[in-house]
Design a protein that fits this description.
about 300 residues, 10 helices, about 10% strand, HDACs, hydrolase
């Protein structure tokens, strides 16, 4: 059965001006239930993880500043959200969802988190709407528990996974692959194990030819026993914060290829949703829902 992390705190409202990007976390599970892709049995409510797991990735000083709400104004501006106790609790809960979903992916082949993909969070700071790096923490958790040895992170959000790259720099046990917009945020890129920087306006054909050439070779050369997939839908042409030109059909084919590759190679995959900022919320929901629809059809 497809298992999906979702907690009511995911949809906690923010002050005016910040609510739109959060709305999808409320509407996406409703859409999946409405259309019959999922039932309530597919969803589980994550719990707060032990701090020791987070501290395997993030520095104690930074994590304590988050918990105590003592980040400097500059650090808060870099994150982009007004800091609050409930926002920090939400971020920690998302990390918990990704950890549990990772264990469930090993059991079922695939598992999802409605939220997550917070790849701009560094070991010692947050930025770009990201405070804690959920997939990085979960990857280290699997290794600490000896549930995975070699991990591949496939980051197909339109923005480079700069925080993830920094966290795992010089660590051969986690291979970081980021395929992103060349001229998009973050403007100062970190160095992933493999970065593919795409030109503005990159369309379906160009994108998919590159991905379909690279991913199988990467899986074969790195031989991972677990894959994290960051399936941001900010690659589509209508996205306000992206500069690529994929169609929703092209984005769906991207997801199909990644998920089918994981199934074919018999590698468990855990998916975090990442970004999506098109002007119409229905576009965001449909693009994200495709990832769940495909997971159901390919694995179950």
């Amino acid at each position: 059965m497809l298992k999906i992390a979702f907690h009511p705190i995911y949809k906690h409202p923010l002050p005016a001006g910040h609510r739109f990007p959060m709305l999808k976390y409320e509407l996406l599970p409703e859409q999946l239930l409405y259309e019959g892709t999922c039932t309530k049995a597919n969803f589980f409510e994550p719990t707060i993880p032990d701090a020791s797991h987070i501290l395997k990735v993030h520095t104690e000083a930074y994590y304590n500043d988050l918990l105590n709400l003592t980040l400097s104004p500059k650090e808060i501006r870099r994150i982009g959200f007004p800091l609050s106790e409930v926002l920090v609790e939400r971020e920690i809960t998302i990390v918990g969802g990704t950890i549990i979903a990772s264990e469930l992916a090993i059991e079922h082949g695939v598992a999802m988190n409605i939220a997550g993909g917070t790849h701009h969070a560094y070991s010692d700071r947050g930025e770009g709407f990201c405070m804690l790096n959920d997939q990085a923490v979960a990857a280290r958790y699997l290794q600490e528990k000896k549930l995975a040895r070699k991990i591949l992170i496939v980051d197909l959000d339109v923005h480079q996974g700069n925080g993830t790259a920094e966290i795992f720099q010089n660590d051969p046990s986690v291979f970081t692959f980021s395929m992103h917009g060349k001229s998009n945020y973050p403007f100062k890129k970190e160095v992933s194990d493999l970065d593919i920087a795409l030109e503005d306006g990159c369309d379906d054909d160009t994108y998919l030819v590159i991905l379909k050439d690279i991913l199988p070779k990467l899986i074969q050369s790195e031989n991972p026993d677990f894959i994290y997939y960051l399936s941001g839908v900010d690659v589509i042409a209508s996205d306000k914060l992206g500069k690529l030109s994929l169609s929703i059909v092209g984005c769906k084919e991207r997801d199909r290829f990644v998920l089918q590759s994981c199934k074919d190679y018999k590698i468990p995959v855990m998916c975090s949703m990442g970004g999506g900022y098109s002007p119409e919320i229905k576009t965001i929901i449909d693009a994200h829902a495709n990832t769940f629809r495909l997971a159901q059809s390919i694995f179950f």
